[in-house]
Amino acid sequence: MATAKIAIVFYSRNGNTEKLAEAIAEGAREEGAEVALRRVKEIVSEEVIAHVPGWKESAERMAAKYEAPTTDDLVSADAVIFGTPTRFGNVSSELKAFIDSLGGLWAKGALNGKAGGVFVSTSTPHGGNESTILSAYNFLAHLGFIIVPTGYTDPALFAGGTPYGASSVSGGGSDQAPTEIDLAVARVQGRRTAQVAKALKQAN
Prior knowledge:
The chain is an alpha/beta fold. It has helices at 16-30, 46-50, 55-65, 71-76, 93-100, 103-108, 129-142, 180-203; strands at residues 5-10, 34-39, 79-87, 90-91, 115-122, 146-147, 167-169. The protein has one domain: Flavodoxin domain (Rossmann fold, 3-Layer(aba) Sandwich). It contains 8 helices and 7 strands; from the N terminus they run E-H-E-H-H-H-E-E-H-H-E-H-E-E-H. Strands 1, 2, 3, 4, 5, 6 and 7 form a 7-stranded mixed β-sheet that branches. The longest helix is centred in the last third of the chain and has 24 residues, at 180-203.
């Protein structure tokens, strides 16, 4: 049986989106998938980072733990799941900068037919979790991904998350989020994406 390869490409500043990424990876591995976790780097100056308490330390920790994504990571994957904190109801500039670098893959159609999805973290309730995922669907479509939403495919989705992708609300802090329900939905997303990616791989 073919083993699906999944790349989880995310940006996280305080660790909330990171925790969702790890849970998605757990769910994908439960389906036998091979998972690569990749975190995009900061694009702002060190001076800007220094003005936000904890940002420098968090960035250094995650930079040491996760490799930065490359185009090869995406080409070799059967599915790519993108994660981002929301920025005014849209994806973060860090993730968007990486997406904007994929013009060469788009021109070659290198990502056509791969499974794709999105997950997010917001700092406030109704802070743009669904609009951020839906806006990210735009670049998934342009890049040729087959979009895989979570849907209401598991009881966990009736308690948290969205039918579009996993999400969490931090409430301005990183120690209360994501909740256990948020993580359960993230694992559902990982399993579901792995199942679809495996089926697509076998069909080809």
